[in-house]
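Each field is set out underneath.
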Amino acid sequence: MTALALPDLRDARAQFAGGRSYLAACTMGLPTHGTRAAVIADLDAAAVGRASAGALTATVERSRAHFARLVGVAPSRVAIGSQASVFAALIASAVPDGAEVLCVEGDFSSMMLPFAHAGRGIRLRTAPLDGLAEAITADTWLVAFSLVQSATGEVADATAIRAAARRHGARTLCDATQAVGWLPVDAGEDDAVICHAYKWLCAPRGVAFLAITEEFAGHVTPIHAGWYAGADPWASCYGHAIELAADATRFDVSPAWQAFVGAEPALELFASIDRRELHEHATGLARAFRERLDLVAPERESAIVTWADPDGLDLARLTAVGIVASGRAGRARVAFHVFNDEEDVELATRALGR
């Protein structure tokens, strides 16, 4: 295979114990050395009664700041939680009765079910990804879409979608779970962006974020408000006469502390990596793999490569030689991340007889 001219990310790759033959960041990220050490240290401290709620809270706030840096917004515009679907449900609660929500046909169910079952006469309509912008009409109140499709790896033409939404007076909700970590994302471009950090950001499951504009936040009711949504969380523990935070943190869900302990080192790592260098690295490997399999190049480059595999034979071939990949919607799926290199491309293509 011809050598690829990829950015030098050796320092970042050195933060992972594994990575060789692991082509499943789109399913679940690998923990960094920092994550493993932090989780073990936290467990050891808890085991001897030395866990500190104050220190854990500080970890949550550092995690919020790292994510805000990653997506180009102020920490005050970021809410923390545990699941992307919970934040999607929060946004669904703000959709006016009888309004239309436009989603991508075949998108991940967590981006569709909160709207499909919201009741109140809300109308869910779908359109193919490549026709989503054209499907927006004056009746559309919200366009909810995944920036990168889980089943196919396709990258949405977010610029066109946002422009069409603005022309028709619609809002946009973007799920960036399959994007943040390899694809540069500017969360300020959408009314709201949600992201679960356990995939490309290599955090433990149970750490999710919502980035929301100040204007849109004014139309959303903090239906999940708990003690951590207060202006001063440690003064919001009792009673009902609590002043909620004035910024996006009023949408906070009480944090799963141990998950954030593991997430914070990983988020710090990805916030420190040049986003465009990582994008070039991941998509360069995916492009080389795609060329070896003679697959059609996507309109917008992706770190995820999928191809038809209805009987699962190609996925079985990869699994048989120890390559961790995945299958979705009748397709084989591989993903290339910071811990992968040219050898992973070679091993996978050889396993497939290419």
Remarks:
- The chain has a mean pLDDT of 95.
- The first helix runs from residue 10 to 13.
- Residues 83 and 274 are 26 Å apart (CA to CA).
- The domain at 10-33+274-351 is CATH 3.90.1150.10 (Aspartate Aminotransferase, domain 1).
